[in-house]
Amino acid sequence: MRMRKLLFRLGTVAVLIAIAACMMVIGRGHTVYFDNKKMEYEGQEIDTYRRINVFVNGEQVAKLSAKDRGMATFTGQKFSFEIEATKEKGDEPVLCKYNITVPYGQDGTVLNLPGMLAELPEEAYTSEFVPVATESTEEDEEIVTEDFGIGEEAGDF
Fold it and tell me: Is the dihedral of CA 73, 77, 83, 88 positive or negative?
């Protein structure tokens, strides 16, 4: 009886560990940022596009002009999207489909779309998104006490 109880407990723990491992891989959320910015790679300058539309699952998630950034969020490691890019005014838009695998430890990935469209290597147009924290100064913080009813109405203390 004791052996059977122990086996059931060990089996339950093993199943829970397996579920947790699966959820770490398939349930992890990611954010992909799309840039339409100039870039330079090995002395070659890649210029921006006039207009880039990004579609995920048939839905437009970003409409980018030159120097713009858009984003999309998804779960899992594989991300599929389509790009409709127009180089110059009056040109026919080019439709491209992409499938990327996001590195496991990366929460935010930046894709330079002109670099992707120029068919550069993945390491040239992909980078990790690192948010920049800005420090606030005392000049930025203004404390107004009149709006809180403090003053003459509150009486003397």
Answer: positive
φ/ψ of residue 125, rounded to 5: -105, 0
Q: What is the pLDDT of residues 86-104, one digit of tens each?
A: 998 888 999 999 999 887 7
What is the distance between the alpha carbons of residues 70 and 37, in angstroms, rounded to a whole number?
A: 11
3-class secondary structure per residue, 25-70: HHCCEEEEEEECCCEEECCEEECCCCEEEEEECCEEEEEECCCCEE
> What's the pTM?
0.68
Find the helix or strand (DSSP H, E) in which 126 lies. strand 126-128
- Phi-psi map region of 76: left, alpha, beta (phi>0 left; psi -120 to 50 alpha): left
Contact 111, 34 (CB under 8 A): yes
**In what helix (H) or strand (E) does residue 3 lie, and over which residues does it extend?**
helix 2-26
pLDDT at residue 14 in the model: 97
Q: 29-128 has which CATH code?
A: 2.60.40
Mean pLDDT across the chain: 84
Q: 45 - beta bridge partners?
A: 40
b vs e for 86-113, b when ≥16 Cβ sit within 10 Å of the residue's Cβ? ebeeeeeeeeeeeebebeeebebbbbbb
